[in-house]
Specification:
The protein has 143 residues and is mostly helical. The chain has helices spanning 4-8, 16-35, 39-42, 46-56, 58-61, 92-96, 103-111, 113-116, 129-139. The protein has two domains: 4-36, no CATH class; 41-139, Cytochrome c-like domain (Cytochrome Bc1 Complex, Chain D, domain 2, Orthogonal Bundle).
């Protein structure tokens, strides 16, 4: 009959079980590191975000050099409470929502505005997660 130690070791060398545990732990850490998205991959590209903003958002929201024509200006949106900007029309739904704009709340809202905040007047969202990251990276540059 074998002992419990024989079940977990391949031989009778001293520290054989400890060596095996260290190896398993290192391989597990490497697997987690390789499986996790890197910060660079998750980060948006502000230049790509500007192109997206110019083609899909500028008409309603303006930018630092042009006035918002319909929706609120998004200059300085990061850290601002929804519905509190100085310019443009704010929907009652967003004005009454208890949302502070940060990367997480913008990512959530931009993916499906009318589903996330019923009654918002923003007509469309951004489906591609990378485009959302790019757009947020650009919005962070607007001060």
């Amino acid at each position: 009959m074998s002992s419990i130690d024989d079940t977990y070791t391949c031989d009778r060398r001293p520290f054989a079980r400890a060596d095996r545990c260290v190896t398993i732990a290192l391989l597990s850490l490497i697997a987690v590191y390789l499986a996790a998205p890197s910060a660079a991959a998750a980060a948006g590209n502000a230049a790509s975000g500007k192109r997206l903003y110019d083609s899909r958002c500028l008409g309603c929201h303006g930018d630092g050099s042009s006035a918002a024509t319909l929706g609120p200006s998004l200059v300085g949106i990061i850290g601002r409470k929804a519905g509190t900007g100085q310019s443009g029309v704010h929907s009652r739904a967003l004005t009454e929502a208890n949302i502070k704009w940060d990367e997480t709340s913008l990512r959530w809202f931009l993916a499906a505005p009318s589903r996330q905040v019923a009654g918002t007047t923003m007509p469309t969202g951004v489906e591609d997660p990378q485009q959302i990251d790019d757009l947020i990276a650009y919005l962070k540059t607007l001060h």
